[in-house]
Amino acid sequence: MSGFRLKAGGLVDRGKALRFSFDGKSLQGLAGDTLASALLASGERLVARSFKYHRPRGVMSAGLEEASALVTIGSGARATPNTLATTEELVDGLEAHSQHRWPSLQFDLGAVNQLFARLFSAGFYYKTFMGPGKSPRSWLFYEHFIRRAAGLGTASRAPDPDHYESCEAFCDVLIVGSGPAGLEAARVAADAGLDVILAERDFRLGGALPHETHPIEGEPPRAWIEQREKLLSAAPNVRVLRRTSAVGLYDHGVAGLAERLAPHAGARERFWIVRAKRIVIAAGAMERPLIFGGNDRPGVMLAGAMRAYANRWAVAAGSSVVIATNNDSAYVAACDLAGAGVSTMLLDCRDEVSGELANDCKTAGVELRLSRMPLHAFGRFGVRAVEIGTADGGGIETIRCDTLGMSGGWSPTQHLLSQRGVKPVWNDTLAAFLPGEAREPIRCAGAAAGIWRAEDCARSGRAAGAEAARALGSSAPAEEFPAPGGWETPIRAWSFGAIKGKAFIDLQNDVTLSDVRQACTEGYDAPELLKRYTTLGMATDQGRTAAVNALAVIADGRGKPLGEIGTTTFRPPFAPVSIGALAGVERDHHLLPTRRSPMHDALVGQGARMLETGLWLRPWFYPLGSETVDDAYLREMRLVREAVGICDVSTLGKIAVQGPDAGELLDRVYVNAFKSLGVGKARYGVMLRDDGIVMDDGTSWRIGEHEYFMTTTTANAGKVMAWLEDLLETRWPELRVAVTSVTDQWAGASVAGLQARALLQSLLTGVDLTNEALPFMGVREGRFEDVPCRIARISFSGELAYEVYVPADQGAALWRALLDGATARGGGSYGLEALGALRVEKGHVGGPELDGRATLEDLGLGRMASTRKPFIGSALRMRPDLQRKDRPQIVGLVPAMRGETFKGGSILCEAGEESGHGLGWVTSVTESPSLGHWVGLGLLRGGLQAWEGRELIASDPIRGRSTRVRIVAPHFLDPEGARLHA
Amino acid sequence: MHITCPFCGERDHSEFTYGGDASIAYPALDAPVDAWIDAVYVRANPKGPHRERWQHSDGCRLWLIVERDTLTHEITRVEPARAAIAALLAEPSR
Question: Could you read off the pLDDT of B55-67 as tens digits, one per residue?
Fold first, then answer.
């Protein structure tokens, strides 16, 4: 028979029924249930199929250690796979689905894998698909099928419709867990006036105390909890967070908490980053399964979980129960079940126990069998019987039962401490890892410190709370930390001799006793190796119930004490956290700030199509009617070449470099000279990194004797600014220079084309723009509508061109005036696409060429480097390998057949040798309306010197095309610069 | 990890940008190539105390010298890289 709801008791609201569904079947639970308790109460025993063998599985725990009962909650975009039924709070209308089965949970074709179990043993993937003699393609081929056959639930591919929040908080002490230790630590710390955050994973406070029936400190457990809950919720210096898992501990007391918000709270989850001065880990302990054949069958359950279901949820897991144990803790479970009217037998592998425990059994009506352990459980879809015997295989008999409890001892929950690099210390007497010494102010209390009795847990909590108070300068009553332990008869852990059948160590990953033994035989007998070889301890449960049992098998195999085997290190997150919660509100367009130029509204108002470039939104092109980008950019290029074009260049980085040594600074960071630049002049400069590779380029304008106006590329604006600050503060503090970012202070436009001078002269006052007054590379100040502006005659497009800057708040006005004037002169605006195309025609290098690998020589800029002064990078750029003649160097490319096109990213190769990395690559291409064919730039081994006039193949294997191209000088248009100087 | 900026106070490390090993004395720009190779490429990569350059990039933008233990992330000392600023901040406030 299956589980059922007991007639009385429990912390469930019998007046409040909740409807839910499991695999489409309509069921009913009660308020206060978890999905698991409601499923058990409804008699649902089979809830999942296992990872590898598709074996039938049921609920095996009552908490976060659950390795079997993983389900998908919700459907459609909200489907959340791999959710633990044991921690999922039941709400009305909850929709749960079993996963990883086909066609149904009862009849799962994947279960044929069990027939091939011998094939799927430890290291199966490695042996079968990888290694010497195996084609590297074989894994690539089989991976798809294996991943389909083995696995967990499937995440929705639809965008997550829910909202998530993130939240930062500070506190004096963060307490993880609200069992007797956590509650008392919080109470004492709060009494001492500390700012306290208490985080509890469950929706109810008390940890394992609601599962208790024995009084604690003279009070019934529930009353004891309620008193403290009341005190804490009334205290203004305490924040109690329910449904909140501490998932990670980081440096300097930073903790990550994942809070599931109550149903219908608006947002679904909230991620807390808490900065705590001290941390108390009171996260309890997790019970270990016993190892015997069929210990994964539905109906086999941790003894403590059975007790939790009976006492907290008023659910009997079955009607005929056998509980097997190797320690004292299962006695209360057996007695409580018997007390609830369930026929109960208790097997204890130990030969004797205290008279008190034996008496308790007698009083409660539990049949106690000493020196007996389970060897093999039977019953495919649920336990029907268990074969028991002595540790050496004697006294074998078969007992009929429908539910089998097990207690293999308890493992203190120290994952958070392990994340901090604190190694646990094995205690052989308690058969448990106890907390190691932490260098940080982190203290374990309660069962997390290996303290088993509830009253001792409460005492350790008070001691931890008082310790925190004193450390932070408050006073608190003295309390001693109790010693770990608390059982009367020592635990007798692990005997493997007589086990029969398939005994699971890691239920979630289907790793059996024989897998672990085989791995050890093959030499994978260190914990970290075993994990990778067998997958033991991976996936959502991270070996919570498996890890220590696996160490015991290794220790047994190697004939060494368990404490010498070592452990694996637990990493965050301790409990699963949804990606949505980690992202919080930083998703979609909230992921990064959006930067808009001061001209943005004017551009958009005019119909610009905008493009995201880094953080900036920039005008891509300005479509007329139904123009595509290709139509538009060619038309915009013609406007520039034939009349006048205007372009928003406000996004360029702008840095005010001021002080008596401003020229000296620029001389050191640029490869070319700036100290000698006259006032009222601009110069194009290139700066290198320390290692001699090109970092950035741009023009700098000498505004006054002690002031330069430096411009950088849009992409590198922040980097160059930080670089100058770094140099001035850490390397050259003696230079009398201040650098200030003025990128956001100035709005700028480029005005390019034959009509540029006339257009600007009509708008600006106080400045003479004639060729004599403002020659190429000259800088002047003038006025636009009574506001001062800066004008430099510089050109990126190769036309007669100016850059004009006005204070940012005048940007939109300047743009509108320029646009009106340009339109009246037969010109107009041009966007990024045309800007890029114009510079390719002119052979200027840009982002695709400044790729962080190119030297000055590679870009054809070697002659810019001054020989009269050293500069950043001047030493290392001369390294022989950076000076080799066969490095990829800039070349111009034109199609050999003029009508053909070619693509950026193509590989340059000789005809017939179109493989491998080729001789170089195409960096930028454009159609050139002035020349009537396509042109491009590329980086080619040996450059022009080796290849000028010859033909190569521009091969584009991904798009399946190749074009013959001729190598030419990278200046396609007006190489003498007649237009510039017009 | 927290860094106490001498100008702004204790702040989360996410406001700062790491700038490299502060124990490197960069040579003069006209120093020989070997001196520059040492400065750019040769690092002690110590396990333990380490002097580092950090910029409070999302704060006051000061460049700082931070003494951090690479094993424990313990920060034992933070001061402005520029001695003149350190002296200024050390003055009693008026």
Answer: 999 999 999 999 9
Q: How many angstroms from the chain centroid is the CA of residue B53?
A: 2
Q: With contact defined as beta carbons under 8 Å apart, do A892 and A969 qualify?
A: yes
Q: Which amino acid is at A688?
A: L
Q: What's the rounded Cα separation, in Å, for the pair A374 and A387?
A: 6
Say which amino acid occupies A951: E
Q: Which residues of A touch B7 (CB under 8 A)?
A: none
Chain B residue numbers touching A669 (CB-CB < 8 A): none
Q: How far apart are CA A413 and CA A61, in angstroms?
A: 15
- Read off the pLDDT of each residue in A724-733 and give the average, rounded to a whole number: 96
Flag whether pLDDT at A104 surpasses 90: no
- Using an 8 Å CB-CB cutoff, list chain B residues near A252: 1-2, 73
* Cα–Cα distance, A695 to A510 (Å, whole number): 53
Strand A682-688 to A238-241 pairing: unpaired
Indicate whether this complex's ipTM tops 0.90.
yes
CB contact (8 A) between residue A730 and residue B19: yes
Q: Where are the beta strands (DSSP E) in A108-214?
A: 164-176, 196-199
pLDDT of A674 higher than 90: yes
Of A551, A519, A521, the C-alpha closest to A431 is: A551
CB atoms within 10 A of CB A351: 11
Closest to A738 (Cα-Cα) out of A653, A673, A655: A655
Look at residues A36, A149, A66 and name the one whose alpha carbon lies nearest to residue A100.
Answer: A149
**Residue A787 in contact with residue A781, Cβ under 8 Å?**
no
> What's the rounded Cα separation, in Å, for the pair A495 and A505?
14
Instruction: Say which residues have a Cβ less than 8 Å from residue A768's Cβ, sequence separation at least 6.
Output: A774, A780
Nearest chain B residue to A740 by CA: give it: B61
Interface of A with B (CB under 8 A): 250-252, 254, 275, 439, 668, 690-691, 722, 725-726, 729-731, 733, 870-872, 874-876, 878-879
Torsion of CA A194, A198, A204, A207, to 10 degrees: -100
Q: Give me the total of CB pairs closer than 8 Å, taking one residue from chain A and one from chain B.
A: 63
List residues bridging with A287 in a β-sheet: A410
**Of A971, A963, A965, A962, which Cα lies nearest the Cα of A951?**
A965
Nearest to A621 by CA among A808, A834, A824: A834
Query: How far away is chain A from the Cα of B94, in angstroms, using its nearest Cα?
Result: 25
Closest Cα in chain B, distance from residue A879 (Å): 8
Instruction: Report how far residue A161's alpha carbon sits from residue A48's, in angstroms, rounded to the nearest whole number.
Output: 27
Q: Minimal Cα–Cα distance from B77 to chain A, Å?
A: 15
Select from B4, B18, B36, B37 the residue whose CB has the most chain A CBs within 10 Å, as the one to mutate to test that interface. Answer: B36
Show residues of chain B in contact with A740, CB under 8 Å: none
Please list the alpha-helical segments (H only) found in A748-810. 756-763
**Spatial contact of A62 and A86, defined as CB atoms under 8 Å apart:** yes
Helix (H, G, I), strand (E, B) or coil at A312: coil
The band of A537, judged by pLDDT with boundaries at 50, 70 and 90, is confident
Q: How many residues does chain A have?
A: 982
| Residue A150: pLDDT over 60 | no
pLDDT digits (tens, 9 = 90+) for A117-129: 666 677 666 666 6
Distance CA B44, CA A115 (A): 56
User: Can you tell me which residue has the tokens 């879809």?
Assistant: A381
The model's pTM is: 0.86
Determine, for residues A730 and B63 on separate chains, whether the beta-carbon distance falls below 8 Å.
Answer: yes
Measured CA to CA, the distance from residue A789 to residue A783 in angstroms comes to 5
Q: Which two tokens stand for residue A949?
A: 């006039």
pLDDT-based confidence at A101, cuts 50/70/90? Answer: confident
Bridge-based pairing of strands A254-260 and A244-250 is antiparallel
Per DSSP, the residues of A568-586 read PPP-S-SS---HHHHHTT-
